[in-house]
Amino acid sequence: MRLPGSLWRNIHGRGVPSRYLANMAANRPCHVTVLGEEYPTDHMTNISPTIVSKLPLKLHTQPSHPLSTLRALIESHFPSYAHLSSLSPLVTPYQNFDLLSFPADHPGRSVTDSYYVNKDLMLRTHTSAHEVEVFGRGETKWLLTADVYRRDEIDGSHYPVFHQTEGARIVSANSAGMKEIEEDNERLAAHLERSSIEIEDVPHLSPMNPCQPAHDPKHTELIAKNLKLSLNSLMLHLFGGRVGATAQNPLKVRWIEATFPWTTPSFEVEVFFRGKWLEILGCGVIYQPTLDNANVSDKLGWAFGLGLERIAMVLYSIPDIRLFWSQDPRFLSQFKQGEITTFKPYSKYPACFKDVSFWLPEGQTLHENDFCDLVRDIAGDVVEDVKLASLIDDFTHPKTNRKSLCYRINYRSMDSRSLSNDEANSLNTQVVSCLRDRFRVVIR
Ligand code: FA5
Ligand code: MG
C-alpha cells in the first residue's frame, strides 16, 4: 500500500524494530496520524487519507445541516433519554465485534469491509460498538448519534461514511420493570391508534426469531412490543404529515424479521416512500451476554440503530448521498436548524465516463472495495459511481490464467463547476498509474 506522505509519516526510532522492516517490505509507512494522534501501522492498516479527512467533520453536530436537524428531531421524540453525540470513532475490534458476540469468521471483520488503523484499532462500523460502554456507565435510556465507516461500493446511496443513531432502553428484569413497560405500551398504543399509520407487522417471536434461553417469553413479548411501539411512534413523528402521510394516504411501515449477533428476536423496519420500500433501521431485544458484558445482568431491554442519511434523503428529497458532504453554499444555504424543507436541486453538471481495463497478475484478485477506495483517494467526491463495465470484461484468460477486469468510472462534479474532459482524463490517468503501482496490474 502506498499513500501520500502528508498523511503517512515514517518515524525513525532508536534501533530498527521488526515491524519497521515489515512495513518497509510492504511499502507501508510506520505510522499514521488520525485525529491528531500517531498510531503504528501493521498488516491490517487500510484507513485511507480520504477517510481520515472525514473524521473531524461530524456533520450531525454542524448547525443547520440536515443531519443535525434530524438528530435533534429524533432526540426531541425521546426527551427522557440521555443524548450522546461525541464519542470517538476509534474503537477496538473487541468493542465493535467481540463484545457483541460477532463470530470470529464474520465477514464484517475483514479488511475488505472495515477500516483498520492497525490490528488493534479500527473505525466503528456501527453505533452498536458503544452499547456495552454506555450501559456499563449506568445509562438505562439513551440515544447516541455518530459517524460510522464501512468499505463499500460507490453510488448515489452508498458512501463509506454515514451516520447512525443508536437508541436503547433497559429495565429491571422483575415485576416492577415489566409494569413500567406495560404502562408505556398502553400509552403508546393509544397514541398510535389515533394516527394515520399503516403497520405491517410480524410476530414478536417465531421459530426463526426466537426468545433467548435466559428470558421468560412473556417478558420478551412485552419488550419487543415496547420496541415496536416506540419505533412506530418515532416513524410517525418523523414522516407523519411531512411526506404526504394523511388519513386517506397513511404512512406505510413494514416490520421484517432480521438477525444480529447481539439481539434476538431481531427486526428491520422499512418505510414505503415514492413507490419503494426503504430500509431505515435494525433493532432487537438485547442478547443477555451483551448486558452481562456491561455488568447489568439484572436488566433486559431493546436497542435499535437508525441510518440518518436514508431518512434525511426521504425527508429533504436529497437525491445523492454525496450531497451531505457538500460545502457548496447552494447546498448549505438551503437549510436552517430545526426546519425540514424540500431540497431544490441546482444545475447538475454532465457526467464523464472513463473505462479502466486491466489484467491482474496471475492468481491475484482485486476486491471491488479496494478499487473504489483507490478511486476515491484520487478523485474524492468528483466520482459519482464506479461499476464493473460488463460481465464480458470480467473473465479469466484460458491460456495465461490471468484475470481481466474493466471498471467504468463516472466522474461528475456535484459542486461549484463543471468538470472538463481534460480534468477527468487527468484523474483517470492518476487512477491508472496508482493501480499499476499498488496492484501490479497490466493496463489493456
Ligand atoms: C446495524 O448497523 C446495526 N448496528 C443496527 C442495530 C442496532 C441492530 C441495535 C440491532 C440493535 P445495519 O447494517 O442494517 O445494522 O444498518 C442500520 C441502518 O443503517 C440501515 O437500516 C440503513 O438505514 C443504514 N445503513 C446501512 N448501511 C448503509 C450505507 N452504506 N449507507 C447509508 N446508510 C446505511
Ligand atoms: Mg440492514
UniProtKB/TrEMBL annotation:
EC number(s) recorded for this UniProt protein:
6.1.1.20
Gene Ontology MF term list: ATP binding; phenylalanine-tRNA ligase activity; tRNA binding
Q: What class of enzyme is it?
A: ligase
| One Pfam family in the UniProt entry | tRNA-synt_2d
Looking up Gene3D superfamilies in the UniProt record yields: Bira Bifunctional Protein, Domain 2, Ferrodoxin-fold anticodon-binding domain
> Per the UniProt entry, what is one GO biological process?
phenylalanyl-tRNA aminoacylation
Q: Which PANTHER family match?
A: PHENYLALANINE--TRNA LIGASE, MITOCHONDRIAL, PHENYLALANYL-TRNA SYNTHETASE
Q: What does this protein do?
A: Is responsible for the charging of tRNA(Phe) with phenylalanine in mitochondrial translation.
This chain belongs to the protein called: Phenylalanine--tRNA ligase, mitochondrial
Originating organism? Suillus placidus
